[in-house]
Design goal:
The complex is a heterodimer.
Chain A (H helix, E strand, L loop, with lengths): L1 E5 H6 L3 H10 L13 E5 L5 E5 L4 H15 L30 E9 L14 E8 L1 H5 L11 E3 L2 H10 L17 E14 L2 E16 L14 E16 L4 E15 L12 E10 L25
Antiparallel strand pairs in A: 2-3, 4-5, 4-11, 6-7, 7-8, 8-9, 9-10, 10-11
Chain B lengths: L17 H8 L17 H11 L3 E6 L8
Classes of the chains: A alpha+beta, B alpha+beta.
Chain lengths: ~300, ~70
């Protein structure tokens, strides 16, 4: 039974699913509590660890799975069941804040190593992203005027959402969000291109610059770095969307972002150079399936009062 | 009358290059193959389904949800 999860809550919380995970992880490849417990585990619902590893090598992962399967066959019936008093209670997950009538984008990020791009030289890593806007925030994207050619400037809350938390260099690994004052340029415009029946055709365009230099400005939290900051990104933004006036929702939403990044953060995989480069980001509408409802990476710092915190 | 040549730098994003960049940034079928596995999205759901189906649980946990990356 394949399942995925974010390890931070599991390795620290005291709820039953988390403590069961900790029991498993204490016997796994990272036995020492306190550090990260990320990796792949084969286990029973009773909390028996069968095998585990943290590896990017598919052969190593396959062997781990096969070892786990062999051990599963030797478990007793009881060991293959959930603990009798297992509680389903989970007090908080970020996914609880999923804005079901909002604008949900899913996207990917990749290094752009040449122009034109070479499909056989894609870089060895890429990343995914999810963006959440509430229903009220969704409407802030839509021009009020119905005059073709109208250019609507997106408000700060929309620009900050994207520029602070999503237009960041995490192609190769986890990075940091930007503070409000680190956003130096923020242009995000929506032009009404055409009206077809109840549908507004929109063009999205803009550019931005974010510079983080010196001390971390977002307080004490799980992201607080140990180092002074010295990284930046400037972007060009282009996209298109179709808004259905009757449904009060987007039926199409596409964005492409080209970003010139400089510098690095502790875990974003730029340690071995170069010092600058170009990345690309693309977004489209997420589907209403569980895997598209994963919370955005920086949800705990989001500029949104509708996000429920623990 | 001669047309003006529009100078633009590398990695230009405009109407003529939009699709090229969009298509390149999207992961290839091979890169996204792992997402075809019907992953449940929480450890809790995995435990319950493992119990119900009497199959071992394959759990993948990361700093940042693996289906959302980091």
């Amino acid at each position: 039974m394949p399942a995925t999860d974010e390890v931070w809550r599991l390795q620290g919380a005291s709820e039953e699913d988390a403590t069961l995970f900790q029991k498993i992880a204490n016997k796994g490849h990272y036995r020492k509590a306190g550090g990260t417990r990320q990796g792949i585990y084969v286990c029973s619902p009773n909390g028996q660890l069968l095998s585990s590893v943290n590896s990017l090598d598919p052969e190593v992962v396959l062997k781990t799975i096969e070892n786990g399967l062999k051990k599963w066959k030797n478990l007793s019936v009881k060991e293959k069941k959930l603990p009798e008093d297992f509680s389903p209670f989970t007090s908080h997950r970020w996914e609880d804040s999923y804005p079901k009538n909002g604008l949900i984008l899913k996207g990917t990020k990749a290094d752009l190593l040449s122009d034109p791009p070479n499909p056989s030289n894609r870089g060895d890593r890429w990343n995914m992203d999810h963006v959440w806007f509430s229903e009220q925030e969704l409407y802030l994207w839509v021009p009020e005027s119905r005059k073709i050619g109208t250019i609507h400037k997106c408000p700060k809350i929309i620009k900050d959402r994207l520029l602070r938390f999503h237009f960041v260099d995490n192609v190769r690994g986890q990075t940091l969000p930007f503070a409000p004052e680190e956003i130096k340029t923020a242009n995000l415009n929506v032009e009404l291109v055409a009206i077809n029946d109840t549908k507004l055709e929109l063009k999205i365009f803009g550019d931005s610059e974010a510079i983080a230099k010196g001390e971390w400005k977002l307080g004490e939290n799980i992201w607080t770095p140990k180092h002074e900051l010295d990284h930046s990104i400037s972007t060009n933004i282009l996209g298109n969307a179709i808004y259905d006036i009757e449904k009060k929702n987007f039926i199409k939403f596409e964005l492409v972002v080209i970003g010139n990044w400089k510098g690095k953060t502790e875990n974003n995989g730029r340690k071995f150079g170069p010092e600058s480069g170009v990345l690309g980001i693309q977004y489209s509408l997420a589907e209403k399936i569980p895997s598209d409802k994963i919370a955005p990476t920086f949800i705990d710092l989001y500029n949104a009062d509708w996000v429920k915190h623990p | 009358m001669l047309g003006c040549k529009v100078e633009r730098g590398p990695f230009y994003l405009g109407k003529g290059t939009y699709k090229m960049w969009h298509d390149f940034i999207k992961p290839t079928r091979k890169e996204i193959a792992w997402a075809q596995i019907p992953w449940l999205t929480t450890f809790y759901d995995g435990l319950v389904e493992s119990d119900r189906t009497q199959k071992p649980l394959l759990l993948w946990v990361m700093n940042g949800h693996p289906l959302g990356c980091t």
